[in-house]
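Q: Can I see a sequence and its folded structure?
A: Here is a first one.
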Amino acid sequence: MTTESTSIPPAPGPWPAAGPLQGLASLTSPRGDSDRLALPPRRPGRPRPTTLPLVVADALAVLLAFGLLTEAHRRWEPALFVTALVVLLDGRAGLYRTTGVPAGVLDELPALAARAGVAWCVTAAAVAAVAPALVIGPLRLSLAYAAHVVAVTVLRGLVHGRRRRAARAHPRSALVVGAPGPARRLAAALSQRPEYGIRPVGVVGARPDGEPGLPVLTSTEEIHRAVIQNTVRDAIFLTEDAGLVTLFQHYGCTTWRIGGEATDGPMGDHLWGYRCRRLVPVGERRGLTAKRVLDVVLSAPALACALPVLLLCALAVRISDGPGVLFRQERVGQNGRLFTLLKFRTLKPVDETESATRWSVAHDHRMSAAGHFLRKTSLDELPQLWNVLRGDMSLVGPRPERPYFVAQFSRVHAGYAARHRMPVGLTGLAQVHGLRGDTSIEDRCRFDNHYIDHWSLWQDVCILLRTAAGLVRPTGS
């Protein structure tokens, strides 16, 4: 372990108890069951407004527009086609969102009008191609389109107005995270303006400021009590903290970021002039299904192609080190879930304590020549393709660590446990930058969280290509 990393006690210690806030560094509590690194008990998410009223409003607008066409054109097939296109395009544009600042139909109008125009033009072209006798003329098409835009504006306006009245009558409890001074000013602005439907009940900060008003919560125990007792539904961050964001999302709260990078959302996306954006949980991000598909599509044939190499490695371990070819070790995966990681055994530990708590065995004199070769070439990691295929891991993600070290690193490095927001991986952004083996934990943590915050499927492909290139000049761990 380098001096920049952290120093590890010689024997397992207790799991970190909840205490003063340091991101998620102190949010790990004792394990509550056999297969999960326990976080505070997860609270079911709040009931959210359904998207159905907005979908119905869009469908009714299409039907009203079709009523203006001639009887020959009023057929159910094109009406259904337009409706399906409008719903699909509006859904892709996020126009059915049910969380956030109560929407205004005028803010949505450009997006609604553009997508309605596309839907009507595509439908008219399809009708002209399939049934030329039923072609919709430019005048009729323009009239139907205009009627659609007017109808959807009115109907969606009614839906949004009803939601704003409900938000005013039943505001959601919220906690504001940040320095007490700015947090109190934002909380005061929201408390005085019920149209936003948010009722601040406390401030989360490093220490109390002694000012009267909302309480300042400084420990995870206080946050836990506040969330349960006040039925907190939202957490508003003035400064983003990956650990606390993960904690509040774990509680089922909607998380918001005030300020930060500008977004391309409508002008209505603000809280009394404060620019805001929703912090989307990793599990809700688009493309994560594609990530899992990529894992299966690549790991299954890779496992099959690597079978001869796996057999040769197993034979080498059996001949040089005796029985027990595979090494099984408990590791911490996504959301603190424990799983059994597979490797080829390169060194037989003295006992389970050494296996669970010894940081590195790279230069252990007990390691055989076969073990040194497997570690240097990273061939000892090949069985983890089975972990990827099973869904315990992903091909790309933060490298999994043992529970003992997760507890220690989480206590020392703020944000370390936030690495578990995403599936752990066979390789990762930290690894392709040379952070393997006995390297800085702080640097690895920073790279891992950067990867999660900026994840994309293409980034996974790039990391896999860089990993493959690195195998030509192996360094091992």
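Q: Show me another, different protein.
A: A second, unrelated one:
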Amino acid sequence: MKRSAFEYHLPRELIAQEPLPDRDASRLMVVYRDQEKLEHRLFRHLPEYLRAGDVLVLNCSRVLPARLYGVKEDSGGKVELLLLRQVASDSWEALVRPGRRVREGTRLRFGEGKLHGVVLKRLDGGARLIRFAWEGDFDALLQKLGEIPLPPYIKKRLEQPERYQTVFAREPGSAAAPTAGLHFTPELLQQVQAKGVEVVTLALHVGLDTFRPVQEEDITAHRMHSEEYHLPEATAEVVNRARCQGRRVIAVGTTVVRCLESVADERGFLRAGRGFTDLFIYPGYRFKVIDAMITNFHLPGSTLLMLVAAWVGREKILRAYAEAVRLRYRFFSFGDAMLLL
């Protein structure tokens, strides 16, 4: 299957540059797998589509202040890091700009010398392995020196960084937000639970592939960068019990889909634990766990668009995207949402 089969035309002005004042005021397009109709609602109407016994699974990963600005110690040249994944107590995988000028052995300085780093080696996908040195508490230092990284298509400065965190974010580790969850408010979650919906969490820490497009025209040649997950025992038990009883499991976001599908056995039952997944879902994939998903509108040719196409069908999702463009929906991280039933 070709990458070009997942392209679509998107006017630049439809890329949302900031969140709406109210999280749940985003629009919600409802797409049915077995019907051609589309419904156009607001996200705050989501409880109308849920029923008692459903299980709603959220990604509670929290975005790190993972963007660091510093200099090269030898020349004073400016350097920007995007921390992707901690691989040891003092070492991280990171994207580096300008990459061509930051070679192995380059020494870096951040925060007027409060944090030092050295480039150990180049990694696949253009990342670098960086070893840091500092005094005191690294997490506190990162909170002081780092910035919340926004995707490159968002050009406007975010005045309230917490708007790029979900209201249920609690496990630090992501380089980007699991954006489907950004639409929820505490009040909306209370409404969902009041209907008898069980709400559970897992963590999948969003990493490199959020920033790395599919380059290969043959999408089967694309290789996903592995991302860390944590599936709690309580979440596995709730999902497994729901599946035994024939109740729906609804994933909030493609990250939740990938985590659940990665740890499921062939019968669709989960085993709790921590690990890494590089699962790439595209049309032809046989889903084992989920019965519905909530997601945002994704970039043309992206692995995320391929995943939702695997759920509802490529032609149907592209027709839905064309309708979203016609009706001036807002796209990407701070944009509107879809409910795929």
